[in-house]
């Protein structure tokens, strides 16, 4: 908003681009304070979860709900969930982490958010490539349909970015809410269909479960890896609508509370 | 030019609303340097940040038809794990400045030698200040914001800072918070006095200094 000049659009876009680029490079080289740690955990978090799920569930059941490989089944669920979760975490802390940079009049909260969305998307892309690359070595994946995979990833990241942006404001206004959010979201993957299919859930609970957009998004993602899986419960209007709404609403809140979040808590 | 248009800034402290300025309007044309005066806690630094645009007024607006700097010698943004050179590169990028040119300029100005390529967390406070001052001097602004002029480095370096800064002021103006009347008279032509939640603009710095003197004598 407060660009001091009334400069032509292409010039202010170029300026905007260079600011976001600068923040991107800075966060990439420091990755949230630590040189290697940040990236290592970005891969280790999903890898460890997938390993734990696979070990535990292969002891309980003989075959996963889809296909033969437990690891692939959990990977398709957890990676999709992780895209939402990690994006929402990264975005909700983006302004606080870059607070000192807001002392430069040219840097706005939006720049910090945008920089992190781009970096996060790129990181998730690499992480997913690594995980599914390794998995394709140990098990035969019959056929991969990229369209639903990419669409589900995009929706998951959008939803995460929107929730994260809204949380920048809510966390800033109330640290109690921040605590509560952290606690109720920890077991969120249990109700997101990471290690089961909604088809296997009995009648009244399945309908409740389907309110969770991540159940739909994970189902959509899985149709890309399991050609025979239909996932008829996936409602595209519901998840695209919600993803778009969440990002628009999140950024609107940041705009509305711009003055507030510029000042320390 | 900087214009305050019916600007109010207040904040709540333990349920009590305190004002820094209430519904003030005035215009400072280019070519005038502004001194900000007031007792401790009157809101001078807050006003400086309002003018910079890094915080927003409670109501009304501030219009800047000028390129306003970050606080002179600001070092809070330096990331300790990045080298001095990388931190300079960052500032060059956000201001759309030629990166290599600014990197070379600050290297030359700050005289940090090999430390320039070391992480900033290994710097002494003096070295950090030299780096920060170098960055401020390397980018051209219409207005430089100064929150208390603090001397940096040894006497030779101080002389250099003063010389370069005064060269800059040939084409730029300055908005300065200071408790030193001498510094205010040296650098500023106009003044703003903050007292008890009211903001008064003086077209002549001497009047502002006199007013501030009376305020201080009264209480």
What secondary-structure arrangement, pairings included, does this model have?
The complex is a heterodimer of chains A (265) and B (219).
Chain A: H1 9-30, H2 37-60, H3 70-92, H4 94-97, H5 109-138, H6 146-173, H7 175-185, H8 203-209, H9 213-223, H10 236-256, H11 258-262
Helix pairs in contact in A: 1-5, 2-3, 2-5, 3-5, 3-6, 3-9, 6-7, 6-9, 6-10, 9-10
Chain B: E1 2-13, E2 16-28, E3 34-38, H1 44-52, E4 59-64, E5 68-71, H2 84-94, H3 99-110, H4 125-138, E6 143-147, H5 155-168, E7 173-177, H6 181-187, E8 190-195, E9 198-202, H7 205-218
Parallel strand pairs in B: 3-7, 3-8, 5-6, 6-7
Antiparallel strand pairs in B: 1-2, 1-4, 8-9
Helix pairs in contact in B: 2-3, 3-4
Q: Globular, elongated, flat, extended or rod-shaped: what is the shape of chain B?
A: globular
Question: Could you estimate the helical fraction of the residues of chain A in percent?
Answer: over 70%
DSSP E strands of chain B, number: 9
The helix/strand series of chain A, from N terminus to C terminus, equals: HHHHHHHHHHH
| Beta-strand fraction estimate of chain A | under 5%
Tally the helices of chain A: what do you get?
Answer: 11
Strand order of the largest sheet of chain B: 5-6-7-3-8-9
- State the major sheet of chain A: none
Query: Termini of chain A, distance in Å?
Result: 22 Å
Strand content of chain B: 25-35%
Q: Can you count the helices of chain B?
A: 7
Question: What is Rg of chain B?
Answer: 18 Å
Structure description:
The complex is a heterodimer of chains A (265) and B (219). By secondary structure, chain A is mainly α. Helix content of chain A is 70%, strand content 0%. Chain A contains eleven helices and no strands. The model of chain A has no long low-confidence stretch (mean pLDDT 90). Chain B has seven helices and nine strands, in the order E-E-E-H-E-E-H-H-H-E-H-E-H-E-E-H. Chain B starts with a strand and ends with a helix. In chain B, a hairpin with a 2-residue loop joins strand 8 and strand 9 (198-202). Chain B has 219 residues and is of the alpha/beta class. Chain B has helices at 44-52, 84-94, 99-110, 125-138, 155-168, 181-187, 205-218, and strands at 2-13, 16-28, 34-38, 59-64, 68-71, 143-147, 173-177, 190-195, 198-202. Helices cover 37% and strands 28% of the residues of chain B. In chain B, strands 5-6-7-3-8-9 form a six-stranded mixed beta sheet, with helices on both faces. In chain B, strands 2-1-4 form a three-stranded antiparallel beta sheet, covered by helices on one side. The chains are: A mainly alpha (265), B alpha/beta (219). At the A-B interface, helix 1 and helix 11 of A face strand 5 and helix 2 of B.
